Amino acid sequence: MDTIFIILAVVIGAAVGIGVYLLIAKVLGAKSLEKRKSSILKEAETEGEMIKKEKILQAKEKFIQLKSEHDRMVNERNQKLSQREQGIKQIENNLQQKQNDLERKNKEADQIKEQMENHIANLERKKEELDKKIKEQNARLEQISGMSSEDAKNILIENMKEEAKADAANYINETIEEAKLTANKEAKKIVVQSIQRVATETAIENSVTVFNIENDDVKGRIIGREGRNIRALEAATGVEIIVDDTPEAIILSGFDPVRREIARLALHQLVTDGRIHPARIEEVVSKVQKQIEEEIAEVGKRTAIDLGIHGLHPELIRLIGKMKYRSSYGQNLLQHSRETANLCGVMAAELGLNPKTARRAGLLHDIGKVPDDEPELPHAIIGMKLAEKYKEKPEVVNAIGAHHDEMEMTSLIAPIVQVCDAISGARPGARREVVESYIKRLKEMEDIALAYEGVMKTYAIQAGRELRVIVGSEKISDQEADQLSHDIAKKIQDEMTYPGQVKITVIRETRSVSYAK
After folding, report:
1. Residues 343/420, Cβ–Cβ less than 8 Å
2. Helix 355-364 vs helix 314-322: angle between axes, to the nearest 10 degrees?
3. Which of 63, 88, 216, 481 is most buried, with most CB under 10 Å away?
4. Number of C-beta neighbours around residue 110 at 10 A
5. Are 217 and 243 in contact (CB under 8 A)?
6. Whether 307 contacts 334, CB under 8 Å
7. In the chain, what are the helix, strand and coil shares in percent, each to the nearest 5?
8. pLDDT, position 145
9. Which of 35-49, 224-238, 344-358, 446-460 has the lowest mean pLDDT?
10. Strands 327-328 and 331-332, bridge-based pairing
């Protein structure tokens, strides 16, 4: 019992102690909070004062900066205004000076005008005096000569007319001669430059091809039993095969060089292989034909590439390749066309025209000589139709059709192609001519000139490029000699066929002979 009371007393005492402790702690905490609060407030006030002072300082600095910028801008504006005022004063001074100069010049002009009026008045007075004196002189001359002034004026006018006609004729002749000299000089210069810059080898083709063999035993195998092999070969190629006594040679005759080439290559393969019979002949000929067609196309492409010509129709390329096997007057047609194309390009460049178009027209100008069919038309017209068919340019089409004057020329490329074609065909060694026809042509040229009245002798020189005509001085005058050369040239041009051009030179001379004894 006592123990319980003791325990209760301890518990109650502990509780009372805890309460007292809590009360004391609360009182002490409230005092510390109050102190802390007051210290925080003091710190806040101190910090606020500092911030206030800083803001005031920043505001003062900003104000001072703005004030300095304002003062600077005001000073700059004042300077600009002063400069403008000075410029305006300078302009005013210049204007004043110009006004003074203008007033001075006006005064001078008035003085000059007054002087001119006085001078004109003096001139008019002198003119009246001069007219009066002229009338007096004319009247005196009429009395002396017994002729009126109108009659004398008419005679003077007639004399002046005759003199003016003679002077005009001389001037015209001099101008024409000078123009001819200049034109010939420039033309020769361009032609010579074009020829010098182009050099092309020329191959001469015949109407027969010689096929060489090792021995004459091969001839029998080519002929075959009862001539079957040679007949099959002729039928397959369209070429006449001549096997005669010529040692180690067989002649292939035909006007189509492509067929002759097919026959030559086919014979070469047959002889090399050794199997020669009709079936084998047809097989080899067919194979060679395909090879030739491929080679023709390749030659056409290579030629176009070499000349820098692009965009040609495949059929035109094939015809260009076909020209390799065609000749004209002994001149290989492809080489002639290449040479003409190069000449056209050079000459067009010299004249400031398009060299590519000129080369294109020069390459295609003789395309009408190798068509697949043979229509009865001039080759220039055939070539023109082919070019038109395969969408060539109008100036190229016209140049092809007009290069032998079958139609009118409509572009500057056409005469260039015509001239270059003549240069390529007429140069020495380009074309082959049979001696008999050559002599006949020269004789015919001389006979045409001899048929004219007053002609004494004629000489064809320079391989038919020039005709010298000697006339009698007592029968033909200088003017008639000029007309005679023109007439002979026109007749030769109309009646004869010849490469290039022929120069007609009429020679008229007077010889006076005396003897000293």
Report:
1. yes
2. 60
3. 481
4. 10
5. no
6. no
7. 70, 5, 20
8. 64
9. 224-238
10. antiparallel
8 A C-beta contact, residue 313 and residue 300: no
Helix (H, G, I), strand (E, B), or coil: what is residue 331? strand
Report the alpha-carbon distance of residue 442 to residue 445 in Å, rounded: 5
Place of tokens 């292939």: 252
* Sequence-ordered list of residues with C-beta below 8 angstroms from that of 197, at least 6 positions apart, any chain: 342, 346
36-46: pLDDT as tens digits: 878 888 888 88
**CA-CA distance, 34 to 36, in Å (whole number)?**
5
CA dist., res. 231 & res. 223, Å (int): 8
d(C-alpha 143, C-alpha 469), whole Å = 61
Helix H or strand E encompassing 498: none
Distances (CA, A) of 134 to 44, 137, 154: 130, 5, 18
Q: 491 pLDDT exceeds 70?
A: yes
Strand boundaries in 54-162, DSSP class E? none
Can you read off the two tokens belonging to residue 323? 């020209």
Residues 6+ apart with CB under 8 A from 495: 448
- The DSSP secondary structure of 396-450, one letter per residue, reads HHHHHHHTTTSS---STHHHHHHHHHHHHHHSTTSS---HHHHHHHHHHHHHHHH
| Predicted confidence (pLDDT) per residue in 311-334, tens digit | 888 888 888 888 887 776 667 788
3-class SS of residue 452: coil
For 234, residues 6+ apart whose C-beta sits below 8 A from its C-beta are 240, 241
